[in-house]
Amino acid sequence: MARAKQSQVVESEQTDAIVPTRPAIHLSNCKKGGVGKTLLSKLKAAYCLEAGLDCYAVDADRQESFIKAYPQFVQPTRFSELDRHLKIPDRILDLALEKLVLLDLPGNVEEGFNHWLNAGDILAAAIDLGVEIQNWYLLDDSQECYEGFLRTLEFMQDKVKHILVRNLGKCEEWDSFNSFITPQLLQQFDLRVIDLPKLREDTATEIYKNTLSFTEARRYKGFSTAQLAGLRAYLRRAYDVLAMANFSVENLRANN
Predict the structure, then answer these.
(1) How many C-beta atoms surround the C-beta of residue 66 within 10 A?
(2) What's the rounded Cα separation, in Å, for the pair 4 and 2?
(3) E-assigned strands of 147-248?
């Protein structure tokens, strides 16, 4: 039932109804650049806007690709190892007390982000405040990605929910996956694994080049009829995959 409803969102595009969401922080995360973190953030933002889910979105990347796609919706933040700058990312936890926060993390802020978590004991504070943190970790099949995730897992442990996102748009063969992500690891940390579908390459390039939101992309005059139809089909598949990791109206709404 949840998957059927998820697919219908892309057909209605956007609703005027506002659905309150539970306090949470969802990280689009990976220590390697160019694996699809902002793509995942944009897909989640598109789903929330189309489904009427009330949420905040935050971009920690200096390139601000997430902000450029959703300038009226996304706000910036910065992570630093300097203690005097800690109040800037502290705002994320303040926002999460109200509703879901989508946080797009670049690959180059690992030390600053970890410093913020440590200095304010953010993981423990979130648990005490009833704010769920989910670490959506993007993967290709590179050693760099896997080692980055294992460092993150060692640092965060089971204080957050971990979702591994294999980006099929970046990699179709996953020969190394089972070597790094063992059955024991999957069971110990209750890891969820999902496969993000591949978007047609010329469509993806145009969306990236023009920093389009998915709302804009569905109306983009530079796309052929086939591209627009393919984009709608892609969004249906992507939303259904997100639902497999409980990213759906039913699981995100407040008082669920």
Answers:
(1) 30
(2) 6
(3) 161-167, 192-196
Q: Find out whether 48 and 101 touch, Cβ atoms under 8 Å.
A: no
Environment class of 236 (CB within 10 Å of its CB; exposed 0-12, middle 13-18, buried 19+): middle
Tokens 């694996």, residue?
Answer: 35
158: its two tokens: 């089971």
d(CA 212, CA 42): 9
Which letter does DSSP use for residue 199 in this model? Answer: P
Pair 239, 47: CB distance under 8 Å: yes
Helix (H, G, I), strand (E, B) or coil at 15: coil
Q: CA 56, CA 104: separation in Å to the nearest integer?
A: 11
Task: List beta partners, residue 248.
Answer: none
CB 181 within 8 A of CB 191: yes
48 touches 102 (CB < 8 A): yes
CA distance linking residue 241 with residue 194, whole number of Å? 7
Q: What is the pLDDT of residues 140-193, one digit of tens each?
A: 999 999 999 999 999 999 999 999 999 999 999 999 999 999 999 999 999 999
Q: Extract the tokens encoding 63.
A: 């390139």
Q: What is the pTM of this model?
A: 0.93
